[in-house]
Amino acid sequence: MSFLLDKMKKMEPLFEKGGRLEKLRSVYNGFATFLYVPDKVTTRGAHIRDYMDMKRTMIIVVIALIPALLFGSYNIGLQHTRAFGIVDWSLMQMFWFGFLKILPLIIVSYVTGLGIEFIAAQIRGHEINEGYLVTGMLIPLIMPIDVPLWMLAVSVAFAVIIGKEIFGGTGMNILNPALTARAFLFFSYPAWMSGDTVWIEGLTKGGAIDAFSGATPLAVVKLDGIGQLPSAMEMFIGTIPGSVGETSVIAILIGALILLVTGVGSWRIMLSMTLGALGMGLLLNLTGGNEYTQIPAYYHLIMGGFAFGAVFMATDPVSAAQTNTGKYIYGTLTGILVVIIRVFNPAYPEGTMLAILLMNVMAPLIDHYVVQANIRRRVKRVRTA
Amino acid sequence: MSTVIRLRKGLNIKLAGKAEKILLPETAVDRFGVRFADFPGLTARLEVREGDRVMAGTALFHDKAYPEIKYVSPVSGVIREVIRGEKRVLTEIVIDRDGESRVDFGVADPLKLTREEVTERLLTSGMWPVLRQRPYHIVARPGTVPRAVFISAFDTAPLAPDIDFIMANVHGNHLQTGINVLSRLTDGKIHLSQEAEGSRVAEVKNLTGVEFHEFSGPHPAGNVGVQIHHIEPVSKGEVVWTVDIQDVVALGRLFDTGFHDRERIIALAGSGVLHPKYHRIRPGASVSGILKANLGEGNHRVISGNVLTGKRIDAAGSIGFYDNMVTVLPEGDYHELFGWATPGLKKFSYWRSFVSKLLPRKEYEMDTNFHGGHRAFVMTGHYENVLPMDIYPIYLIKAIMAGDVELMENLGIYEVAEEDFALCEYIDPSKSELQEIIRSGINLMIKEMN
């Protein structure tokens, strides 16, 4: 493979300062370091460095998303056959149908987002940040399949520019960029994002068989009562309408396993968010009130975007709480908020997105108090000494 | 015996090339050097010029801020060169060794001297700089009386020498005298920390006048800063001193024999060395003697000190003032195709995404490749896992980057030295230079507090 390296080396001067393609330096650098780990050696500080870098970190998250993507593709096909009364598709046909439907979303997401990242890196004179590799995959997975591509592109641009780059890029953002994209669409085009048809490919154009609603379980509760909910097993496996990646709890759990085994995802947040939601759900089961309070507590964990949010969204290390103690508080409160929003504000059935975004904003405050406690311990030592 | 302080946080880097426990005699070395960078925060004023004859113990330069602190020549010879770097900053004094003449500072029993007499003797003999203080991890300031003195009797850094082996082989029985010297300098205790499973050589075990502590756990358990933090942390306004255990011997030797003689035993280690063994050597000696016919094939980096905190020197460079080992590693100046994506069978890592985590392998070859590019901080909760202190590393780092002195103080800047953050720097997937940031924070504190 050394001819590749030679070719790369030969091209390098073009992209350096004064070179003909100087304006594409960040692009060249991004691809070159992707192909080859550079020959850069340590000059200051520790003489050896761990092999782990941001590329590996981010790619692990992308790998963890693949089960959800694969199942999501299949489910798009499955829901389509159900909606249109198709009975003779094989599993592969359904998967392939779905995959071809989601592929444009992934391409639009990456092209728009990475394009902005490349420009931002070029302006700042930094290297490309790998953060968007994850965001770019997350965004299609939390979108309804029938979202128009231009809407997707606009929301990606909004999320990357307003959600991330103006704060200084990956590592500096306050909100989770993928959720920012989703929230942007949710509030800008509510008719698209909250109807019952957008979740199933082709349904927005009509023509579904009679009596097919296409509503997500969270909407079903509101429309028809909890008696009409799909079975827990169905929601766990994920053969229900919903955003592409969020429906299958099994696929998400495989992803969670990858994140936890590699130590990239925070078990503290996943665990405390689950316990928070479960606890709040149980509490509401006891108190009663409206239709939603009757949903069995564990349903909250398998309905809507909870599992996906807990594993992939709330755990974003940049926008989550950063201290270990803070992570428990952050996770628990997020879990509680998801259930509260779902139950008491049925206008926004998708509580996970809003809960995580709200807690993203609160995370620095949580950390502040955790760090203050550390400072108080230290100051107290001076006084007692 | 005291209870064992068990540290769970930290990381033992399984680096290949550990030194065999064979002690080689001192090799004849002609070139000696004293490097100014070994003393952070020092502004030096020269007392010698090129061509001057010096004895072992003749002052070479002193501290501009504390002129009484003298830095002396380790050997007798002729000043060959005063090397200056950019902006004429002093970098090194090179001495050609010649003869055995040495300054006689006189024999004395430290227990019969006053604190002032002991201090005076240490200052004039050039032995004072072996005393370092926390906060700031700099040469101790004369005139202060430390709350306590801390000595670490084990080293957990990658490939670090076995201190018990060294203490069993050190020339002369001066350790107790050294402890007696220290006891004259503090009203507090002298804390000596040992490894819980250490071999307990008689030389150390039978010491009197010290309080023993036992630590167990991975690196940085052997860092004296970590030990202080768990025995009795440094708060604002307090000063403690630390001394390398081999320098305690040198302190004793000064009073027992009258001579400035810091002869010590170091480990020569690393996968770039053909015969990693222990050597008797004087600080400042060129490493060319011990590296002769001892370097492997290829491009290597010679490091005075350990791989985490040591300084890069060339193959004839001189061993640092405080260092107890020399490490030689292959340089990592190569491209690796999809290097970030490999399963990592042969790649030791802190991170569990490398298959090597599952393997029982005891040692791994490593080189100096940077393994990535600099990024903003993204990952959280991992730096804490390799820093066994009640300190939030990234918050302290960010306070330093923001230049917020009060916040730095509140977050524990007085308790840390750059070596305590070396592991954070090693594991950092964002590849930040954390040790450099910590030192710049310490420098800012020194400036602000004076």
Features:
heterodimer, A: 385 residues, mainly alpha, 3 domains, 16 helices, B: 450 residues, alpha/beta, 2 domains, 7-stranded mixed beta sheet, 6-stranded mixed beta sheet, 11 helices, 20% strand
Shape of chain B: globular
Ranges of chain B with pLDDT <50 over ≥5 residues? none
End-to-end span of chain A in angstroms?
64 Å
Task: Report the sheet-strand fraction of chain A.
Answer: under 5%
Question: How far is the N terminus from the C terminus of chain B?
Answer: 41 Å
- Look at the structure and give the mean pLDDT of chain A: 88
Largest sheet of chain B: 7 strands, mixed
Question: How would you sum up the global shape of chain A?
Answer: globular
Radius of gyration of chain B: 21 Å
Most extensive chain interface and residues per partner: A-B, 59 and 76 residues
The whole-angstrom Rg of chain A is 23 Å
Class computed from helices, strands and strand pairing of chain A: mainly alpha
Q: Please give the count of helices of chain A.
A: 16
Helix content of chain A: 55-70%
Major pleated sheet of chain A: none
Q: In terms of per-residue confidence, which ranges of chain A show pLDDT below 50 for 5 or more consecutive residues?
A: none
The DSSP helix count of chain B reads 11
Q: Strand arrangement, largest sheet of chain B? A: 1-14-13-12-15-10-11
In total, how many beta strands of chain A? Answer: 1
Assembly of the depicted chains: heterodimer
Measured as a percent range, the helix fraction of chain B is: 10-25%
